[in-house]
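User: My advisor, Dr. K., asked me to get a structural model of this assembly before our group meeting. I'm new to this, so sorry if the format is off. These are the inputs:
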Amino acid sequence: MSTLNTTAQSWGLALAGLCLASTLGCSTDTDPDIEPEPEIAASTRNQLLWKRVQVFEQDLSRALELAPEELCTELGSYDCVNDIHLVNLGGHDPFGRSQYAPVAAPMVTTPLAVERVVIAACSKRVERDHDERAVFTALDFGSPAPAATSDAFTETVDTLYRRLLSRDPVDAEYEVLAELLVDDQGEPVLAERFAAEACVAVATTTEFIFI
Amino acid sequence: MPKTTSCSRRRMLASLGGMLGAAALGTVLPPRRAVADEGEATDSVDPADRRLLFVVCASGGASLIDSFLPVSEDEVPEGLDPSILNVYPSDLIAQPGASNIRCVRPIPNTSFLVPRYSIEEFLEAHYESTTVITHEVTSVNHNVAQKRAMTGAGINGGRTIAEAASAHYGQGLPLANCNMGYDGYLEPGTDRYLPRHARAEVILNPQTYALSTHGHRGISSQLDAAGVDRARAARGHLDQVSPFGITYRDAPLREDYIRARDEIGPQLESVDAITKLMLLDVDGPEAAQLGMSPVLDTLRGIFPNLDSDIWQQQGALSFLLSYFGLASANTLALQFNPSFMGDDLVGAPLAFDYSHVLHRPSQSVMWGRTLQVVDGLVRLLQSFDYLGDPALGKMWDRSLIYIATDFGRDKNRPSDSEMFGTGHHLNNGSLLLSPMLQGNRVFGGVDPGTLMTYGFNRQTGAPEPGTLMREGDIYSLIAQAMGIDFPGRRDMSVVLAG
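Assistant: The format is fine. Below is the predicted structure of the whole assembly, which you can bring to the meeting.
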């Protein structure tokens, strides 16, 4: 019994200590100005890696089932990724410019280059899917976009996330993309327009750019 | 209802650990330099106060004694053999008009290299604005020497002069520091406290660079501008609600990217940079969405080979970036790839470094090639009002052009040889053009017996044999002329305009 009492006392002291420690520097109240702690903690290391030109190209190519050279051309003939936007996308030119190392971090025009490539690639995919469905198999092109509660919508969003980001979407992401189903007047857009916009939206998130 | 806590146990433990760690590290790490140093702009700079820097990189080893500091055979002291020194016949040395500066005339034999412009033409047109400064460098390795020409051998904490100028004048400009350089001229500085806006925007292809300044115009797509905006809005929301976005919400790399995407990208689009900077005649289905620079015809008049010559394209783009208020510092550089106009080889392979094989033809042709673009740039800067606003005066009034050289070349040659090769040499100089400097003047001198350049008195500016200026002096001069201060800057007041 004395042992139990000692043990109980010890636990009590430990618990008191813990409570004291947990209050140090913290406030515990119901102040509405204090944001509730999100369920996902912020990274304390933040060691992100920029997905550079070849990896970016390959990931996009595999996700949209397009050959790398089909992703994007500028002015009808220039290769977007390996020519026009090479350095913006993280590449370098050792032979032409003796640029032996790429830029350390994305440049100011990197997001614009990413958008150009992704918009071209997503548009190409949607165009191809008219004749031969590969990605947007759940959508009925030529018809209005499906309802947000439909299986077609869920399946399309799932497909985009699995192909581009290798995961399933969370509820909040379905909600965001559901907004693309209708225009500013609340009328359904064409299914192919939804497909293109959703594709661009997902493929230009920072999650696709950094690993 | 459970009470909400703003501090989890994990966060509390993390902060306690952080405090202890910081206390320990604070005794080891040097104090962090403030991001905004004294004199460094933190707010947008008033255009009226902005100054423009153009770094023109004469890559490969551009020799001053083969351009603006020649020595004639007659000037070699008695007892020395001029036939083994890289001296020129008197009739190949010119001193045009009221110029205090001499130069080498076009040489009669440039082998298979085809000259298109001469040093003499340049000096005739611009001697009043030209300042020649002798100096010696600290490396004969191209990459290292080029880097040191940009950083002043590290005199300003590793910042390149273009970074320093952009840090000071580029706040608020979307592309403050544009670098079309080569090798060491293209490398960033090593100052890790450089403000974000002063980091270089590397440009490999000036002719098509305009396409990088818009997110969709000119791309074949079913999406119109409104559709792109909708996708962008959705993308922004996705970034906020995704597990990835929440987890890495504080990641600096991601924050910088989002800032560029959501602030600077729209800024570039709103000012229609894609049109203003377009140097390419566009045809095909994309032409409907794209336009050419409103100054393109003028540029073609100044740079007649603009459509095919990347060197001229660099000159043109550097002007456009500054004229339209997008950049405050531009770096352009000759490449080591040979350049052709039709069948004419107008740019030597290895640029000035082809002097290893044919010294005098390479120096003559490549100085001409370099100065042709500088001539065009000066004429544009002297013709156009900054930002197109007459109240701001001509762009030239606020500009400085620094012709950077890697290093010099050997001073000797095989006896009486006109066709010979030279190696690298530490001893040389640089050329600068600006109304902010004393023009039509040589600071320093050259020994006619050895062809070694020497420096000048820092108080009087008079040539002073036995003295040498270094990379840090040139850097300090440019910084001082541009109104940029930094710890350790050397006083080069004697070179500045009155």
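One thing worth pointing out at the meeting: Chain B touches chain A through 82 residues (CB under 8 Å).

User: Perfect, thanks a lot.
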